[in-house]
Specification:
By secondary structure, this protein is an all-beta fold. The protein has three domains: about 1-40 and about 400-490, Jelly Rolls (Sandwich), CATH 2.60.120; about 45-85 and about 135-390, YVTN repeat-like/Quinoprotein amine dehydrogenase (Methylamine Dehydrogenase, Chain H); about 100-135, no CATH class. The protein has one helix and 42 strands. The strands form eleven sheets. Strands 2, 35, 36, 38, 39 and 41 form a six-stranded antiparallel β-sheet that branches. It has a four-stranded antiparallel β-sheet with strand order 1-42-37-40, with no helix packed on it. The longest helix is centred in the middle third of the chain and has 7 residues, at about 305-315. It is elongated, with a radius of gyration of 25 Å. About 45% of the residues are buried.
Length: about 500
Amino acid sequence: MALIPLQIPPGVHRNGTDFESSNRWRDASLVRWHDGSMRPVGGWTTRKANAFAQPPRAMIAWLDNDSDEHLASGTFDKLYYVNPSQTVSDITPSSLTSGSVSGALNVGYGGGFYGTSGNYGSAPTSSGVYSEATTWALDTWGEYLLAVSSKDGKLYEWQGNPSTVAAQVSNAPVSNKSMVVTEERFVFCLGAGGNPRKVAWSDQENNTVWSASATNQAGDFELQTTGQIMCGLRMRGRTLILTDNDAHIATYSGAPFVYGFERVGTACGVASRKGAVAIDEGAFWMGKKGFFSFDGSVATEVVCEVADYVFDDMNPSQKTKVYAVHNSQYGEIWWFYPSANSTENDRYVTLDYKEGHWAIGNLERTAGVDQGIFTNPVWADASGNLYNQETGYTHTGSVKPFAESGAISIGNGDSIMKVTSLIPDEGTQGQVQVTFKTRFHPNDSETNHGAVTLTNPTDVRFTGRQIRMKVQGVANDNWRSGVMRVEAQPGGRR
């Protein structure tokens, strides 16, 4: 008998065929690999049920001058404020133009059903072949809130009084697509005035002055890009501007030019207006078919071991709902996206940018903020519920946290092996179950063995040339699973 370690590297590999994921984790949900072991992601508790009437598409949290906590969120047709007592106020501007709750493909001639009004055989109802789901750009101006709806395009300011609504900022450009406040205290309107490549900025510390003169620092610049500006991210000393084709950096230089612009990446456009997030080390975003990072000097593609799966799984008509959240406690970026058969975000992909591996899973979230202002991350689902994330280990739903491997060759892979027992590496035994699936060749049907609750050792009896192993939590606990070992002996050749 020999003890054979099932040494599987952390993270999920799901590019290519099942056999290409040999000796790797191929499927997972609600687990992470951290500090050398697999463990469940934190659970969640309801912070505020039915906070919003529609799926939230943006969220921001901030402190006022008295250090009180505030949260705001935007849906396709509303802007909401949530106070420290979780009372929700509708602060929607009275002049807001409602947007679209979902994206749509093939608008106008050739799209839709023949003979149906507004579809095939009718004049186009909008330009182009794709209309995006409406999102918001939200940022703070001191203790005030600034907001731009991608549909409405006006710049609004809300001054913190729940009994009043947000008001349009005087003199600011209209028909904007996004907005960001720079570290130097300028407001950038992106896609300003209906020009998809134009960046317009206010005077420093004055968001009502937008016409350039010798006595102020307002100005504008048209990016040299073939794409359209999607979003902006505030970074240390600079502002990152992402289009659907490339990446640009705006650097403050002072009068007379105020800002200089430099392209720092090509063929690296962001998939959605909320698909990028800034961190201390730079920024990460989801592109059209890959993932990208900015390290302070240049944008580069991040090697992703689940990219094939994610982009094949995504509903292309709803790609503008992709939402990125930084989970700083674990050094992770989470992207929530709509799967092929869903119109709302129901799946996620995560990058552990400190340890360099990926994970996937099922979780319905449409917007969120990192911890910092709040003790825990606060995320929201499509029903408008707010949740405190990474709280305990209760995961609402029928699926418990799990990870399942690709094919694992027992021994050197050319001999049949008889497995008699499993030596677990588990933090607390009884919190995890293991199922094995065996086969003799890559295309053979599989035979299931288990699930078994782990003891030391665990009695298992099966024979095969290749196995797959599924590890699943059975209790709402912070379990740990490390390197399992099987006791096996050769069973000859077949």
